[in-house]
TrEMBL record:
Family: Belongs to the N-acylglucosamine 2-epimerase family.
A Pfam match: GlcNAc_2-epim
Protein name per UniProt: AGE family epimerase/isomerase
Record key words, sorted: Isomerase
Organism for this UniProt entry: Endosaccharibacter trunci
Amino acid sequence: MRDTYQNGALARFASWLTETVLPFWLAAAHDPSRGHFHEGLSLDGSPLGSVTLRTRTAARMIHAYADAAALGLGPPGGLAAAERAAEALERDARLPDGGYVRAFDRTAGAVLDPVRDLYDQSCVLLAQAALLQATGNPIYRERADALLETIERVLPGSDGGWAEDENHTLPRRQNPHMHMFEALALLAGTTGDAGHLALLERCHDLLHRQFLRDGLLIEFFGPHWQCGAEWRSERLDPGHMAEWAFLLHAGRTLLGRDDAAASEMLMRTALELGCSARDPLFLIDEVDRTGQPLSDGRRLWLQIEQIKGCLVTGRGARAVAVADALLREYIGAAPSGLWTDRFSLEGTPIAATVPASSCYHAWTLVGFFFRNASPAS
């Protein structure tokens, strides 16, 4: 696999992110006065006018800069900014009885959406795990354990897993549970704690018991994980298939499970159902069970997850080809440090902003790249 990482396209993508994107976004998208990162940037690289910041975006930016620092690849001041952003999140988004709101005003600190959502909690847990790994500061372990207690108390779910949010909104989704798996894998890998590993096992069991059905990754469910048109269970996300294929590989050492067959099945299905007819190297945002597009778009993050999934399932040549096409189409025509985040299926740029959330996806690929590209790996 190491030879694949040395290929020009993947190495160029890694260099672009570490040498251009992370320094640029630290300067353009971090507010040192309030501590927060912005939700995104305008197409010209200027800050967005909106003051709304989703907790999941704030947490994912913290994760990216903390994890980059843990590898010695972050820009000067990146870890300090991540820690400052974490304190700002505690100040503006944490509720008195635990857990974090869905969105807030990044300039005034006012809560804009007070609901505790599993997706947001999983992203905060990922950020706390990354900060613990990067700094060794026990405060992040304490916060992670407190958050896990809150999730169990506030978001109990029937038949395994957790509720969508504290209002028990339907349909239930697999996606927040996937990100809980991701966060718990980083946390358990850092702490070695048996309780963290048990929760990771719980997410793993849920994938195999509920989410994987008839060779497909189901996205939406009823209250007891039932499928049906009323729950939109026919809508599939090829990017999530690729993401799970990668995460199963990443979690194999912690769990001692051989998930190679499941990872291969997920990646094969993503490519069979999810590729654009016009641009077959790219995945479509959403499709039905026959592969018919359900949206007219293909975002950047899906292509990054496709590269990760291809790398761990022996599709190195495709990973290189997708990386090359991504550099050419999504990045090549954008201003330095930015990218075009979404194209229509006809190949027309349709993104109105450059969302910060895509930095997280890009970093997860580059972090994996550097952890596996060195001769010592």
